[in-house]
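Model it.
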Amino acid sequence: MEHLQQPGRRAVLGATVLGAAGAVALGASGSAQAAAPARGGRRPGGHRLPVPAVIAHRGASGYRPEHTFGAYELALDMGADVIEQDLVPTKDGHLVCRHENEIGGTTDVADHPEFADRKTTKTVDGGSITGWFTEDFTLRELKTLRATERIPAQRPNNTLYDGRWTVPTFAEVLDWARTEGRRRGRTVWLHVETKHPSYFRGLGLGLEEPLARLLRAHGLHRRNAPVFLQSFEPSSVQRLARLVDTPGVVLLWKEDYRPWDFTEAGDPRTTADLVSPEGLDWIASFARGIGPLMDLILPKRSDGSLGEPTTLVEDAHARGLVLHPYTMRNENAFLPTDFRRGSDPNAHGDAFAALRTYFGTGIDGIFTDHPDTALLAAADFRRTQG
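Modeled.
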């Protein structure tokens, strides 16, 4: 993210003065204000997002194959505050919603003999991957495929829905969000991630420009738009900030992780540098939030139990940044050992206790595969905060 913007913009989604019973309200001026609890609906002239907000991670992916309209619609039906999309391009430049550009694990492409010769091995962000890749398919070809469950061993019930939905384009998602917002009488918020942006830019399939065009076409390019634009590559968030005023979020992985755009640019910084006071100052100069791995807020001990919290929430809030950490899943295998129940790794643990602990750190929202559970936990938490 080479482009830096004026510090005042970082307050757009600032949550430093908001209690857990408050809300992030994006008014016509674009500045964050304390609001009443989320039961009040929209604030005139803007949009309201409750705190803590529940972000449906790739839709209600604990119940339906991820990044399908089935997962997105179920998340809205459950009441999720925000729906997430991951974006990758097709060969002809359309943006589609897949967790990765390799689609062997999320579609039935392997069952299509006409695409057998498309299977290949590529190096993406320094790693070798074998499979089928969206950038080798036109949108028309991709639409002949059907979505499947990504982790069938952990979520066998989701395989019931294999083959029901195609891969959605982001243009279709924007139309869907507008239609559903009108039908339901509520704003449909989106959390949109650019995947491997440097890799795709090197192929002549840059993500940011077509994304910005779609946002502008839907009037979602303004600073008070109900959309977050996120990436693990800070330069992608910077690039988008040059094109639109839509709020940007820098995603953060483990402490020793070096973003791929930093690697390509020879920038030695890692996540540990970015969560330092100096790193957060830099992020706040062009973004309005961070999406940290939950371990950066509540580190785990060697036995998998939770340790003492870091100062990341306080430090980020002091700079006007909201925090949307990831990812809460109900299954034992994904929970800290404190909250596991029984010996089956795929059984649900004490998700409510985990969420209560996470919300207690002061985060502004959380990504979750199980939005129904998180919504109940968020409502409980707000009641305890008065």
